[in-house]
């Protein structure tokens, strides 16, 4: 094959991928994001600046990181309500481990990172075991986990905020590389890994199969229980990464940190086109949903809109996304 023919084949392949994305609903979602950004930049010229756009990415970083694992869970037709409490718990457990350390305590800082990740993985594994092997309802299991994780956070901290962590721990939340904030970099890396895992691996294909029809997936030889278990464990790990980033940004661990974060995570995933019925979704769509929520928050703030109305508008966007998903499901029946 000549170089020209190879280039033509690559171009055609790229065109087919773009068309598939447009048909999947990501195209209209991206178009809506662009239109909103243009409208906000006209209404408030300071919106379309590098500092504002960077600020948006930093603000949504915690939600975005947690939403990656949540996307896997929802594609399997599950739900995870414990993510906000788990973000707080992982940060607090790490802070307790590093208590009294100096900024230069590299060993304790690295240990805090591993402790946080292990805590997130453990809670995710407990959720996954209860849902996949004990066959309990995901809503109830993760609701209970949400309450227990928040209660444990308060018990460990005695209701007090813990401050001052080693630099080796805060680097992922407070530092920058080439002028780019680390929270944004970590979020983008997690999204890329999540996209590759979902679209390019056998595990990702199994996630879609389980969400589409568990019985059919089981008959096809897919280890349904193991897949469900691993998705919740993955959600726990991404929640832990979000907890590390949040604690690093604040250089503190708050007992009330990430309160209500689970609703923002689910909202971003649903707005991004992932079906609550399972079997359909994408990491790219979730990323656009996360950015869209951040754009709405910052844009309305720049316009001087009352924060209460901002929350109302967010709720309206979520309702519209759920309604469109329901209508899409009905058309398939």
UniProtKB/TrEMBL annotation:
Report the PANTHER family cross-referenced here. ABC TRANSPORTER PERMEASE PROTEIN YPHD-RELATED-RELATED, INNER MEMBRANE ABC TRANSPORTER PERMEASE PROTEIN YJFF
Intracellular or extracellular location(s) = Cell membrane
- The principal localisation class reads membrane
The name under which this protein is listed is: Ribose ABC transporter permease
Q: Where are the bilayer-spanning segments?
A: 25-44, 56-74, 81-99, 105-129, 136-156, 176-198, 227-247, 253-271, 283-302, 308-327
Gene responsible for this protein? rbsC
- Lineage, uppermost ranks: Bacteria, Pseudomonadati, Pseudomonadota, Betaproteobacteria, Burkholderiales
**Keywords (A to Z) from UniProt:** Cell membrane, Membrane, Transmembrane, Transmembrane helix
Membrane topology per the entry is: Multi-pass membrane protein
Answer yes or no on keyword Oxidoreductase: no
- Give a single Pfam family match: BPD_transp_2
List, in alphabetical order, the Gene Ontology terms for molecular function in this entry.
transmembrane transporter activity
